[in-house]
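so the lab meeting is tmrw and i was supposed to have these ready like two days ago... anyway. pasting both below. for each one the top line is the aa sequence and the line under it is the structure tokens. i havent really looked at them closely yet so no promises
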Amino acid sequence: MPEHLDRIAVRGLSATGHHGVFDFEKREGQTFVVDVVLGVDTREAAATDDLARTVHYAEVAADVIALIEGEPVDLIETLAQQVADACLARDGVEAVEVTVHKPEAPVGVAFGDVAVTITRLAGHP
């Protein structure tokens, strides 16, 4: 995340999705938790006290839940990229860090969390 940007974080967005490489994951679904940190210049919003001059985090949260609950993908890396793309499509978002947690992943041993974190910048493929 570039140092010159302010951060707006929405953490712990949780919903049931049907993502995974195994048939039972797609059929039965499981909980996914997503954390999003947006890189935004908030100075104009702060100076004007105007929501229209910043990123509406409730709308971002709704987008994330829709993606979790949406079309299944095999990898949480793919889901993370979809979330990043949706965030970067919003006006004012210059960077985003997305973490997708899969706490019920079929790992086969006891574990605390499985997660993928990606960082993407606007204008960079």
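ok protien two:
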Amino acid sequence: MDNKEAIIQATIKLIEENGEHLEEITVRDICKNAGVGLGLVNYHFGSKDKLIEACVERIINGIVERFQNIREEIEGLSSFEKLEYLGNMTLDFLFEHAAVSRISVLTDMQSPKECDNTYRTYAAYLSLVSACRPDWDTATVRRKTFCLITIMQQTFLRHETISKMLNIDLSQKDNRSAFHTQILHDILEV
């Protein structure tokens, strides 16, 4: 393993160990765990923040890939049930891994890329929305899928404000699930 990959692996391990306390991860800790010199983080990534963003993207990419496999495991469900199940799984991940998820979503919003995590999530949901509403044209499916992904991100990022506004505690899994199901009904018009 080269130095850059060793730094990434060490950082991912520290992210997983520190959970919500990413600010406690130091370049010194990263380099010590990677077995590399202190200057290599800046050399390869420019800063600790850029390194963490790269690691978060890799973590989320792994989740999106697992998402594809899970879609195959739930073949017996209706299209709506699949969308509901995977949406709840996505929201649960966002809330259970808040620090990593916040970095991922905000990075995608601040510096959108063609294949960033938001786009990959959108692409993964596109066929499910289409399967739920085969009567919609391609433009409508794309627009409604974009709305769904945007609402999920906002539900996560602004859950405290939305909870107060709608009088529902979105930090609670059951409430979040019910909210998500209602949003699906609203978007899909079913």
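from a quick look at the 2nd one: Residues 48-73 form the longest helix (26 residues). The chain has two domains: 1-58, 77-190. will dig more after coffe
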